[in-house]
């Protein structure tokens, strides 16, 4: 049964499930594992904090997503194609696991941030 996003462990489930899909995805997986070669043990907790800050008001996120994604866009294409795929997987994950206001908020925030990132990337 689907539940509301209420606490840190809900955020961890959302993030873990989303990045499993991302890593298995043809359009996105290689960007994380081959281009950026990210350290997942580091990245996942960073993403828990990001989403817990946005949705639960945790104030635990310390990072600079805009700068990191602009840098990434110089190493690999980061176009509407990649962002649309990212959003599709994110929305699928949210809808698979959760219902309620915060679930809707998560999808809206993700879409707004993605739009802003793409806009910044296109204007540098
Ligand atoms: C085409 C879509 C995207 C790709 C391929 C992508 C890829 C990545 C990669 C490879 C990193 C690690 C960068 C590093 O540590 O150097 C990263 C970090 C991050 N991403 Fe994305 N991303 C995408 C879209 C998004 C969107 C739409 C959001 C927000 C809704 C987001 C939020 C973040 C955050 C918060 C971090 C951590 C930044 C930090 O540590 O300062 N990403 N992303």
Structural overview:
With 124 residues, the protein is mostly helical. It has one domain (8-123): Globins (Globin-like, Orthogonal Bundle), CATH 1.10.490.10. The chain has six helices and no strands. The chain has helices spanning 8-24, 29-35, 40-56, 65-73, 80-97, 101-123. It is globular. The protein starts with 7 loop residues before the first helix and ends with a helix. Bound molecules: protoporphyrin IX containing FE. Protoporphyrin IX containing FE binds next to α2, α3, α4, α5 and α6.
Produce a short descriptive summary.
This protein is mainly α. 73% of the residues lie in helices and 0% in strands.
CATH architecture title: Orthogonal Bundle
Provide the CATH topology.
Globin-like
Number of strands: 0
The shape, in one word, is globular
Structural class, by secondary structure, is mainly alpha
Helical residues, percent: over 70%
Query: For the terminal residues, how far apart are their CA atoms?
Result: 44 Å
Distinct ligands: protoporphyrin IX containing FE
The whole-angstrom Rg is 14 Å
Ranges with pLDDT <50 over ≥5 residues? none
Q: For this structure, what is the CATH class? A: Mainly Alpha
Question: What percentage of the residues does DSSP assign to strands (E)?
Answer: under 5%
Mean pLDDT across all amino acids: 97
Number of domains: 1
Major beta sheet summary: none
Query: Helix tally?
Result: 6
CATH superfamily label: Globins
Give, in order, the helices and strands.
Answer: HHHHHH
